[in-house]
Structure to design on (295 residues):
């Protein structure tokens, strides 16, 4: 019975994360209409930090001093740096492309696991890594901007972010096995949330934008939704998913995210080029091979 519960929890969390994260790209797109990429990244982290702060206050004292550095690293790799990278990327590529490119996360999860965490694999898993990367690079060249170089210059931020996510997933699975997901998420945000909050209030014109740019308050509302659900809640769910499943299964949430991202992008008037199907197929073929288990 316990095994059935875990099975149900795994897939239920996977579906919820797909819906939440698949919708995050269109929310970022809206926020970028009123705020700079750096402000969008900082807002996402700072707001999520404020939502998690009551929990962090209670949980912080339970964290051993020897793990503090690891919590800082988890905060930076799992949320802090990627939040800025995604915001910057979406100033140059459509939200649906950002969602599609994020699907290469399982490829990097396997690659990093093999290279640094002694993850055992087979030749077809490694082949999947290279096929998936070829699909991601091809996708960047398929359309959406005037030149391949400009696509690559923005799309590379997504690729870097997925690498950081993948490293973070392996770190949590390997070194924070005994720490619950709520503690990992809330406490790690203390170390990235405070600097982002200070930066927003003291280092940007966020107040001026809210008072003088039409629609800024509405777009701030989108950021609050993104931070509360797409960062705070989703962070807890994802860290719990890592606990009850394999790192590859947890990273598999990015498989279906492109579908939700493309639906939102299409509804918002973004073009979907026929050539995308070829490169998306390569990405999914690579993901299939990466997750194929040994008989």
């Amino acid at each position: 019975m316990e095994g059935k519960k875990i099975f149900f929890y795994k897939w239920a969390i996977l579906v919820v994360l797909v819906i939440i994260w698949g919708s995050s790209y269109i929310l970022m797109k809206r926020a970028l209409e009123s705020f700079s990429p750096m402000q969008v990244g900082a807002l996402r982290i700072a707001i999520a930090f404020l939502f998690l702060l009551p929990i962090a206050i209670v949980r912080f004292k339970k964290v051993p001093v020897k793990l503090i550095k690891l919590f800082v690293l988890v905060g930076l790799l799992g949320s802090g740096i990627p939040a800025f990278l995604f915001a910057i990327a979406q100033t140059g590529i459509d939200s649906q492309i950002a969602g599609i490119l994020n699907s290469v996360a399982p490829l990097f999860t396997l690659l990093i696991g093999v290279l640094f965490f002694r993850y055992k694999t087979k030749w077809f898993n490694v082949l999947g890594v290279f096929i998936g990367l070829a699909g991601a690079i091809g996708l960047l060249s398929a359309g959406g901007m005037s030149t391949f170089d400009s696509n690559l210059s923005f799309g590379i931020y997504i690729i870097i972010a997925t690498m950081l996510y993948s490293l973070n997933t392996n770190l949590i699975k390997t070194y924070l096995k005994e720490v619950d997901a709520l503690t990992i998420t809330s406490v790690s945000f203390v170390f990235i949330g405070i600097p982002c909050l200070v930066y927003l209030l003291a280092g940007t014109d966020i107040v001026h934008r809210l008072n003088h740019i039409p629609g800024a308050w509405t777009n701030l509302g989108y950021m609050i939704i993104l931070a509360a659900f797409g960062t705070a809640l989703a962070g807890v769910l994802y860290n719990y998913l890592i606990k009850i499943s394999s790192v590859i299964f947890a990273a598999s949430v990015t498989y279906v995210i492109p579908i939700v991202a493309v639906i939102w992008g299409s509804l918002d008037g973004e073009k979907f080029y026929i050539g995308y199907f070829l490169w998306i197929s390569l990405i999914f073929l690579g993901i299939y091979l990466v997750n194929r288990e040994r008989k």
In short: The chain has 13 helices and no strands. Residues 77 and 164 are 5 Å apart (CA to CA).
